[in-house]
Amino acid sequence: MTSPGTEERPTGPSPEVASGPTPEPGRRGRRDLRQPQRDLGFAAALWRAVEVFRAVAVVYAVVAYATREEPYRNPVLGWCVLALMAVWSLVVWRAPRRAVWLLVTDLVLACGSVLATLAVDTTALAAATNTLPLVWPAAAVLSWAVWRGPVTGVIAALAVGAADLVVIDPVDRATLHNIVLLLLAGAVVGFAAELYERSRRELAEAMEQAAAARERERLARDIHDSVLQVLAFVQRRAAELGGEAGELARMAGEQEVRLRALVSGRPRPTAATSTDQGDTTDLTAALRSLSSSRVTVSGPAGPVLLPAAAVADLVAAATACLHNVEAHAGEGARAFVLVEDEVSAVVLTVRDDGVGVDPGRLEQAEADGRMGVSLSVRGRVADHGGRTSVWSRPGEGTEVEMRVPRPGRPPRH
Amino acid sequence: MSDDAPPPAAAPPSEQEGPVRVLVADDHPMWREAVARDLEEAGYQVVATASNGAEAVRRAAATSPQVVLTDLQMPGVDGVEATRQIVAADPRVRVLVLSASGEQADVLEAVKAGATGYLVKSASRPELLDAVARTARGDAVFTPGLAGLVLGEFRRMSSEPTVDRATGVQSALTDRETEVLRLVAKGLSYKEIASRLVLSHRTVQNHVQNILGKLQMHNRVELVRYAIATGLEDPAIDD
Predict the structure, then answer these.
(1) CB A337 within 8 A of CB A318
(2) CA distance B106 to A379
(3) Peptide bond preceding A25: is omega within 30 degrees of 0, i.e. cis?
(4) Residues 263-282 (A) with a CB less than 8 A from some CB of B
(5) What is the pTM of this model?
(6) Which of A73-77, A98-102, A122-126, A215-219 has the lowest mean pLDDT?
(7) Inter-axis angle of helices B201-227 and B190-197, to 10 degrees?
(8) B residues 119-138 near A, CB within 8 Å?
């Protein structure tokens, strides 16, 4: 740079290019983390509701026990059981998390408190089809339901119900009614908790995917700004050096194309249109993966949508044509893949600038199987109602044109 | 587009008023320096470099280059917008887009905005110099990739013909122009196209030039129509 105008050369801005996009996704990342935490808070609220119920149930049991007029057979034991219930309710309330031992103990105490009724007073309590803890054992059932869903909820309800059946005699309609209610509570609350848990997990997954997509986009941008530039640069410079460096250039070029295809492989066009015509994909985008230092792929800027099966077959056909170019077109031949989006058809052309064949010998070559791929090409194209034509002349390369009609277009008009 | 492309290395341009003045815009310092160095070694005068679109526009106005060589993806004002502003400020400036591959839509927008050529960054030094020389001469630099894009764009435009009828602007391609464009897209050189279609090299060149002119004209008409539709909403405009 020796010319007078070069003072204009800028100095600063490149670092901002490298570091620019990074902070923003980071900020987004933190926001994503906060979301599941709020969900955990919701689950905690569910547990808290059960605890509140448990506390109220203790108070209810104490009040009912204290206000009964008939004497107990063993009033002290009754008070002890009630005290234990209160202490346990407090323990569970203060417990930082729902460990398995806590839940098991909870259920054991629930059943135990019911059975303790026998020792405190048999007849009087049972006559009212009530047990000493009253509704308190339901808290254990609800805990189990919230824990692992309806199955554990019902198991706990069955355990408490069994204890009820042991204590209450004779078993009447009201008792059965109470047990059925308990079972229902276990099942319904368990189902709700499970539903909530599943949707929470799905939401978390969806958010994770969205975050991954954003991260991928950021990476793609970063790679585009850095690695791809360097690879293209290496390719260009090394090619000028020739010799072994020429090989480096070729490799750098191929990696550039591959990496680019990788980072730009966004499902954007398919996602936008898959609803209106079944499964369609962008033919041009699919073909771009074939590009290399010797293969140029060109087509319209917008997506060229065809059914996924047709795209797969056309890509396979183009690949076969390119193999053919490699095998027969001669050293250093280049290939050009062109996609044209016509009103009623999509035209895919694979042309090479190689040695070419005499038109008369083309059929001969085909018959000899020397261009055997053309058979599979024709077959694949014909499968989708298309036509294939081959043009070649010595010294002017070979051109394979595949014309596939657009499905669904004619009936619409 | 490949490392062993046939176009001959360009001789340093011999314009009547000294070396051709070039501005190089690319946000990647490595590229900027390398391209500028190549151009200077080949006898061009690099009057300025820019690391983003806004700088390119400013420095183009200050240094009045004949050729602007620009990347597309740049921070802030990108290459497309820079091209639009540079060409608007001085229609004589020729813009050659030097872009990484895989930015099809952007390339098309840049050409519609007034760029007259497109080259992928992986192009070899002789290809680059040749492209700059052609751009400086006022010729369009059509790679197969760009031809494919433009071909697709005209097809898209022809599917919404109301624009032409309303404005009376002839922006559809003639059959011959379409034929030429398809051959360019299939990788034939102008010389090969000339011999295949039995035309002179210059005629092929003119066809390509006209194709580009029609695309840019169509784009301007569309912009005006858009401005009218959104800004004025005057139904009397399309008589």
Answers:
(1) yes
(2) 36
(3) no
(4) 264
(5) 0.59
(6) A122-126
(7) 110
(8) 120-125
